[in-house]
Structure formats: structure tokens, C-alpha cells
Design brief:
With 249 residues, the chain is an alpha/beta fold. It has eight helices and ten strands. The chain folds into two domains: 122 residues, Rossmann fold (3-Layer(aba) Sandwich), CATH 3.40.50.300; 105 residues, 3-Layer(aba) Sandwich (Rossmann fold). 36% of the residues lie in helices and 28% in strands. Strands 6-7-8-4-9-10 form a six-stranded mixed beta sheet, with helices on both faces. Strands 2-3-1-5 form a four-stranded antiparallel beta sheet, with helices on one face. Helix 3 packs across helix 4, helix 3 crosses helix 5 and helix 4 packs across helix 5.
Length: 249
């Protein structure tokens, strides 16, 4: 059974390039980093991206992660994906995780499309046997044909997106982490991509979706999590949390 447990999790970013009193303005004004401004035990400036988060998710949960820009939504997904390690607290995850956040992460632009299917498949947790079984289906879904034999640096942005999308959605996860609802390619490919995402959501045991799209949340989710400056402001029934989120906007 898919399960996620977070107990008193805190994640902080140290800020090394400080310039005294103007630091707060740079961090929150120009750089637009989420979380709350603080200092560590040595007095060095930090951004508290997530603060004392305790949550339990299990199979059947379809969770929308809500909050303003910079509230910590993508950071929260990356924490669940294992990209970040918390400074305090514990995370326990039971189940195979698939992450659709930055879908071109790990792609080697000097390598061919086929080589990237192998490398990105391994990075996404597939075994060599699984990649061998899935490579032809990935190639066909991408619709890139003979371009798969060429370096990715020769691709347009849309072509690279097609390949990355085909790879990362080839996995059938227990736990699916999704940052926004991805659009990829032209109108025909976009329709195919939307159908594939819905199928992927359907086969996953647990979904965590960060998005601003209210209608999509109502269609897919049964629970919601509201973050504000890295703190949990609400978690529970999706309609209740949506009302809270709308009232706070």
C-alpha cells in the first residue's frame, strides 16, 4: 500500500551572498524565493522553505497542493521526491515514486534520443529490462522517428519536451508527484499527452498535484493541502480547503 508520512519536517536554505539590511529585499523582491526569512543558530540568514510539517497520505488519496507563488508547493514535491533532505524531522515513503516536476531534468543534450531514453529511464527508477521493454513504446509515443538517432541538441524545444514527456510518463507509479498539468507539443500531441496523464493518474495509488487550476482540482482530487510561507494552513476535504484557499487570496 502506498503511504507517505512526514513528522515535524523543516527545510531551510542558507543564503551565502548577503548584503546586510538589503538582503530581505533582494530575497523576497528580486529573487522571489518562497518561505519565510529567518536566521540560523549562528546568525546567518536563511529562508525557511518548509516549517514543522507533519502529514500522513495513503492509498486512495488524491491531494491538491495549494498556495500562492512561493508558498512552497514545488519545494514540497521535491522533498517527497528525495531531491531535498530536511534539516529536521523524518520522512517515510512506502511505494514506487514517479515525479513529473522538471521533465527535462537529467537529459543529456549531446546524447541521442535513444541514449536519453536509457539514461533518463534509469534516473526515473526503471531497470534495464524495463527500459528495453518500454523503449519502443516511448519512441512511438514521442513521434520523433529517425530524430531519436540524433543528438538532443539538434531538437527544437517542442521535440525535446515530447521525448522527456514520453519517458517520464512511461512509468506506472504507486505515488505520482505532479507539478502543474503539463502541456507538450502541438495540438494533436497535446490531446494525446492529456489522455496519457489522465491514465497515469488513474493507475497511481496516490497522487500529489501542485496546481492553481481549481477545475482540475475538483475533477481529480479528494483532499487538499494549503501552504503559506512554507507552513501548513489547512489539510483535509478538498472542498473545505478550496474555500479556505479562496478566502485567503
Amino acid at each position: 500500500m502506498a503511504q507517505v508520512s512526514l513528522q515535524n519536517v523543516t527545510l531551510e536554505y542558507p543564503i551565502y551572498d548577503s548584503i546586510g539590511r538589503s538582503l530581505r529585499g533582494r530575497v523576497f523582491g528580486q529573487l522571489r524565493i518562497g518561505g519565510a526569512f529567518d536566521t540560523d543558530v549562528r546568525g546567518n540568514p536563511t529562508v525557511v522553505a518548509l516549517k514543522d510539517v507533519s502529514l500522513e497520505f495513503s492509498s486512495g488519496d488524491r491531494i491538491a497542493v495549494l498556495g500562492h507563488n512561493g508558498a512552497g508547493k514545488t519545494t514540497f514535491l521535491r522533498l517527497l521526491a528525495g531531491v531535498y533532505e530536511p534539516q529536521r524531522g523524518t520522512i517515510k515513503i512506502n511505494g514506487r515514486v514517479s515525479t513529473i516536476i522538471n521533465i527535462q531534468l537529467g537529459m543529456d543534450r549531446s546524447a541521442s534520443g535513444y541514449e536519453n531514453i536509457l539514461v533518463c529511464g534509469l534516473l526515473n527508477g526503471l531497470s534495464r529490462n524495463e527500459i528495453d521493454r518500454k523503449s519502443q513504446e516511448i519512441a512511438e509515443f514521442s513521434e520523433l522517428g529517425s530524430f531519436l538517432e540524433m543528438p538532443v541538441r539538434t531538437y527544437s524545444q517542442g521535440m525535446a519536451m515530447r521525448l522527456a514527456f514520453a519517458i517520464c510518463t512511461s512509468i506506472e507509479p504507486d505515488i505520482l508527484l505532479l507539478d502543474e498539468w503539463i502541456g507538450a507539443g502541438d495540438a494533436d500531441f497535446l490531446r494525446k499527452a492529456q489522455l496519457r496523464l489522465k491514465k497515469l493518474v488513474g493507475v497511481s495509488n496516490l497522487l500529489v498535484l501542485a496546481t492553481h487550476r481549481i477545475q482540475l482540482i475538483k475533477e481529480l482530487c479528494n483532499k487538499a493541502l494549503l501552504l503559506e510561507h512554507g507552513e501548513v494552513k489547512g489539510f483535509g476535504d478538498v472542498n473545505e480547503i478550496l474555500r479556505l484557499y479562496t478566502a485567503r487570496k
